Amino acid sequence: MPTSSEKPLDEPYGLFIDGDERVASNDQTLEIIDPATDEPITTVPAATSDDVATAVETARRASDEWQDTRPKERSRLLCRLAAAIREDEERLARIETLENGKPLSAARTQVQRAARHFEYYGGLADKIQGESIPLDGDHVDYTIREPLGVSAHIVPWNVPIYLFARSVAPALAGGNTAVVKPAEETPLGALEIARLADSVGLPEGVLNIVPGDGLEAGDTLVGSPEVDVVTFTGSEATGVEVAKRTVEHVADIHLELGGKSPNVVFPDASIDHAVDETITGIFSNAGQVCSAGSRLLVHETIHDEFVDELKRRTEALTVGPGVDDPDVGPLVSEQQLQTVTEYLEVGRAEVGEPVVGGETLDGAGYFVEPTVFDGVENDMRIAREEIFGPVLTVIEFADEQEAIELANESPYGLVAGVFTENVGRAHRFARDVDAGQIYVNEWFAGGNETPFGGFKRSGIGRENGVQAIDNYTQLKNVCLNIASRD
Ligand SMILES: NC(=O)C1=CN([C@@H]2O[C@H](COP(=O)(O)OP(=O)(O)OC[C@H]3O[C@@H](n4cnc5c(N)ncnc54)[C@H](OP(=O)(O)O)[C@@H]3O)[C@@H](O)[C@H]2O)C=CC1
Ligand SMILES: CCCCCC/C=C/C(=O)O
């Protein structure tokens, strides 16, 4: 397997089923495009419904043995996989950059996070414990956490390697087998990690990867009655369809959907720091992050100074191909470029010219300038709808009460951030704002260890942390009558 940075791909790629690689049953393929150049990178097989059914049958067959594998052995295997990912970090990062477009240093961070995820859940695999419940002297009552069985993972294209790890690691740790459908644009990272899993000894059939079209491969997967739990990250519209299909066969479902997260800056904050974090919050991954800080609420007394500084630093950001490690890479696809371009026009119609950015770059690739729209009202489309691009909307507020009301006036509730040096205000914000995670004085705070998921229309359930084990286990209660019957 090549490890040099010059040749990150180890072609050809196959559907990864039962520890083996194969072409699609009808030979169809997906073409993978480099978003920085609009040029094809490689092809992978596109799973048909029959292929997905085979993958699910395989996962079902492997399920009993994996459930019976001693937890400490599952733990060892996941930790070995983490080590293998770390050893291959540079090549995997180059693959993430190639298929997704993100800057190389950001791709390296995401590969490290993926490795950390397998370590973290490897560490937890042998600590999934029940409880004993006191009843009375004649009864012994206890709970056991058992695996659900076959888990299905619908993974998006924005952070493909990390988001693959985010749900697969706790699922395998919990004793489930997995079938993963990566996004059409970015299947390579998942296929590469499946090979690493095989190389460290993960039993055949425990992890299966079926790249393909959402409407065919994805729908067949989540609709399969043999699937016991579905985890989905992506758009709200698709998430709702996936949930309906899953509930038809009464499987568990976890949804991590969109956001329009408020980033609230009070006058007592360090402006310098808050501007930096605002830029990180909206322009990382070219704004293609569910937890992007896309709605900046800034106090009226610091508004002008803040926006001037934001403009100055945004203008200085470099935009270019991810392999050159710029500040901002291309969007993932022509489709995403079109969506974001339409929102730039919506923004112009709603508030006029942006204070910075607002253009797509000429030439090959899907590049959009980092953009800031000022003078936005909270009920405008650019303040309510998830753009999923490098586009920030700036809204003024007059006092704390108004800031909290504006923060909460959104259909979403994924994360919310506050910049203030006033501890009481930070805690009031955390108490009063409806979001699954609150950031204080740092955007993208927390990590693999901290529960992550949405209030309101941002989703159902929590990823990350010890809590994610609950997503992939079911609770059994055992109650014994131990009264003497002599
Ligand atoms: N919360 C997040 O992190 C993400 C949010 N989004 C949001 O979604 C918007 C559109 O992006 P898009 O890629 O179309 O997102 P989707 O939500 O449509 O796709 C996410 C995943 O779901 C799959 N999928 C699509 N339809 C089905 C289905 N019927 N059954 C099962 N799986 C399905 C997709 O496959 P396929 O690739 O074949 O379509 C992909 O793997 C973005 O602009 C952004 O706003 C997108 C990605 C991540
Ligand atoms: C800068 C990237 C941080 C990624 C954090 C996890 C993202 C999740 C998502 O978009 O669904």
From TrEMBL:
Q: Could you tell me which PROSITE patterns the record lists for this protein?
A: ALDEHYDE_DEHYDR_CYS, ALDEHYDE_DEHYDR_GLU
> Domain named Aldehyde dehydrogenase: which ranges?
24-478
Molecular function per GO: oxidoreductase activity, acting on the aldehyde or oxo group of donors, NAD or NADP as acceptor
- Provide the assembly information: Homotetramer.
How is this protein named in the record?
A: Aldehyde dehydrogenase (Acceptor)
Q: In which organism is this protein found?
A: Natronorubrum bangense JCM 10635
Record's InterPro entries? Ald_DH/histidinol_DH, Ald_DH_C, Ald_DH_CS_CYS, Ald_DH_CS_GLU, Ald_DH_N, Aldehyde_DH_dom
Which Pfam family is one of this chain's hits?
Answer: Aldedh
Keywords associated with the record: Oxidoreductase
Give the family this protein belongs to, as stated in its UniProt record: Belongs to the aldehyde dehydrogenase family.
Catalytic machinery residues: 256
